[in-house]
Design brief:
Helix content: over 70%
Radius of gyration: 20 Å
Number of helices: 7
Strand order of the largest sheet: 1-3-2
Order of helices and strands: HHEEEHHHHH
Largest sheet: 3 strands, mixed
Shape: elongated
Number of domains: 1
Distance between the termini: 13 Å
Structural class: mainly alpha
Length: 228
């Protein structure tokens, strides 16, 4: 069963990652009718929202785009910073969606920000505890299951909170790009939607994976008879 769980969740994650890259590459071609780059679109969206204290910067590497609420920085990969494709504008507008969430004190975003620290600890636990248990034999099976269930429960809760944060940011991106006439109705709007919807599946895959591992470690605690 553990191999089925491991291979199944890995396959789901690999499929989600492959899909977002495939869809992104397909729509990272050509130039939108507005002629704007991802960075230019980001600045216009932030300005229209009254946000003038967020820096838009670029980094090397593909799809490393993110919004950093601690440093008030919107980071775009080089492809999306300079790119003028529907994919570039879709990703840039999505990250602007997070900046707008921050400005408006969107509750799920603040819940996620507050839980980053404990989630990082939980990730360390699920990485190292099984190895410690295997190589030292100092951890009783039921004790290990309890600690792992708690750690995976924290990760699962974090991933669950992430879903509305990401879906809301994508919804804002699709709407604002159309309302501000940065993309044309039809093919460009469809391309943006497909890119953002594909990206959303990576977060769904992360949640499903953490839920599966949480239930796997919770089951022996509920049954009370697992010894290995």
């Amino acid at each position: 069963m553990i191999w089925i769980l491991f291979l199944g969740t890995m396959a789901l994650s690999l499929w989600a990652g492959w899909r977002v890259k495939s869809v992104y590459n397909r729509h990272n071609q050509g130039e939108v009718f507005s002629g704007l780059s991802g960075a230019e679109a980001a600045y216009r969206i932030l300005s229209a929202a009254g946000i003038r204290d967020v820096e838009v910067s670029q980094i090397d590497g593909l799809l490393g785009d993110h919004y950093d609420p601690m440093h008030r920085r919107l980071v775009l990969s080089r492809e999306n910073y300079y790119g003028r494709s529907p994919a570039a504008l879709g990703v840039a507008a999505h990250e602007c969606g997070h900046a707008i969430q921050h400005q408006q004190a969107y509750a799920p975003l603040h819940w996620r920000m507050a839980s980053v620290g404990i989630t990082n600890y939980a990730n360390q636990v699920v990485m190292w505890l099984p190895m410690i248990g295997i190589f030292t034999g100092l951890i009783r099976p039921m004790t290990g299951a309890l600690v792992m269930a708690v750690a995976w429960g924290i990760i699962m809760a974090f991933n669950l909170i992430t879903l509305p944060v990401e879906f809301d940011a994508s919804h804002r991106a699709k709407r604002v790009l159309g309302e501000m006439r940065m993309i044309a109705p039809g093919a460009e709007a469809v391309a943006v939607r497909e890119v953002l919807d594909a990206a959303a599946w990576t977060y769904v895959a992360a949640f499903v994976t953490s839920l599966a591992y949480f239930l796997w470690h919770l089951l022996p605690l509920l049954l009370g008879n697992r010894e290995e």
